[in-house]
């Protein structure tokens, strides 16, 4: 367990109730990306073949890990396996894989849609939720761990994009099931979420969109950014949006450096990446 700078009684609880758990204490909150990276590096040092990430606001079905590992063992090209992630009501989806649109906007497939068996077929997807997925150690050693500049939000889409560019597949196994309290953490964080989402919206596109696709979809990306700004202003989030854009601009050297590294190691064609992008506007997430 990685304790990411808790200020409550989490550490004391773990030490008193779960003495056999390996506890790694961080002195301050390093975000989702920084926190899981510590755990990933520990697992790699221990010789792990794969690393499963699991959020603190989720619960796994008893066969969740067995199903994920079975999928990974069956196909050496699969670098990430994700699950059927349901809401805690066990009736509605949280995610059945992440997708990335030509507007630069990622989205979890089928969020808040009722589970009627329509996503019960295993298949390749664009990306995986970092809250309940399995990552191949060999892949992480090749493409790197999570980008800590993201801190929180979209870092799982970023690592999925990098995996795809490097020739790894992301696979959805509906027999692996977990239950997630959507927004159990982020709903308490106010403008924090908007700031990091906006910042990472720019990082994600700038680092990963390859070759001529970068220029082909840049007009749509720009329109989406303008829509996000207008929405933020209407909802009183203009300051958080502006701070996010400013931080993204200050991260330009990092974006350029990472883009060069990622694109230099790309093993798939731009045509392949274009084929796996979602070609429409991201669907509106229904309320339940």
Describe the 3D structure.
- The protein is α+β, with helices and mostly antiparallel strands and 288 residues long.
- Helices cover 44% and strands 18% of the residues.
- The protein is built from 11 helices and 11 strands.
- It has helices at 10-17, 31-45, 64-74, 137-143, 155-165, 191-208, 211-216, 218-234, 238-250, 252-264, 270-276, and strands spanning 2-4, 24-26, 50-54, 58-60, 78-87, 93-95, 98-100, 106-108, 123-125, 132-136, 169-180.
- The strands form 3 sheets. Strands 3, 4, 5, 6, 9, 10 and 11 form a 7-stranded mixed beta sheet that branches.
- A hairpin with a 5-residue loop joins strand 5 (78-87) and strand 6.
- It is globular and about 55 Å long.
- The two termini are 32 Å apart.
Question: How are the SSEs ordered, and which strands pair?
Answer:
Blueprint: E1 2-4, H1 10-17, E2 24-26, H2 31-45, E3 50-54, E4 58-60, H3 64-74, E5 78-87, E6 93-95, E7 98-100, E8 106-108, E9 123-125, E10 132-136, H4 137-143, H5 155-165, E11 169-180, H6 191-208, H7 211-216, H8 218-234, H9 238-250, H10 252-264, H11 270-276
Parallel strand pairs: 1-2, 5-11
Antiparallel strand pairs: 3-10, 4-11, 5-6, 5-10, 7-8, 9-11
Helix pairs in contact: 6-9, 6-10, 8-9
């Amino acid at each position: 367990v990685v304790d990411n700078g808790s200020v409550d009684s989490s550490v004391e609880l773990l030490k008193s109730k779960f003495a056999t758990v390996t506890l790694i204490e961080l002195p301050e909150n390093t975000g989702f990306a920084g926190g899981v990276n510590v755990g990933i590096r520990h697992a790699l040092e221990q010789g792990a073949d794969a690393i499963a990430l699991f959020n603190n606001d989720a619960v796994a079905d008893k066969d969740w890990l067995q199903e994920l590992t079975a999928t990974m063992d069956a196909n050496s090209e699969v670098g990430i396996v994700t699950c059927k992630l349901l809401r805690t009501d066990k009736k509605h989806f949280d995610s059945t894989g992440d997708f990335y649109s030509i507007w630069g906007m990622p989205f979890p497939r089928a969020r808040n849609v009722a589970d009627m068996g329509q996503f019960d077929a295993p298949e390749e997807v664009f990306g995986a939720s970092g809250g309940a997925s399995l990552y191949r150690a060999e892949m992480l050693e090749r493409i790197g761990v999570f980008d800590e500049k993201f801190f929180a939000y979209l870092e799982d889409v970023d690592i999925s994009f990098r995996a795809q560019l490097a020739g790894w597949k992301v696979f959805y196994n509906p027999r692996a099931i977990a239950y997630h309290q959507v927004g159990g953490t982020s709903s308490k964080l106010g403008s924090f979420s908007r700031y990091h989402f906006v910042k990472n919206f720019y990082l994600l596109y700038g680092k990963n969109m390859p070759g001529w696709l970068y220029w082909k979809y840049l007009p749509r990306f720009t329109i989406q950014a303008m829509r996000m700004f207008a929405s933020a202003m209407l909802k009183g989030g203009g300051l958080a949006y502006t701070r996010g854009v400013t931080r993204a601009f200050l991260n330009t050297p990092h974006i350029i450096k990472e883009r060069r590294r990622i694109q230099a190691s790309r093993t798939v064609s731009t045509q392949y990446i274009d084929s796996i992008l979602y070609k429409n506007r991201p669907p509106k997430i229904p309320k339940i």
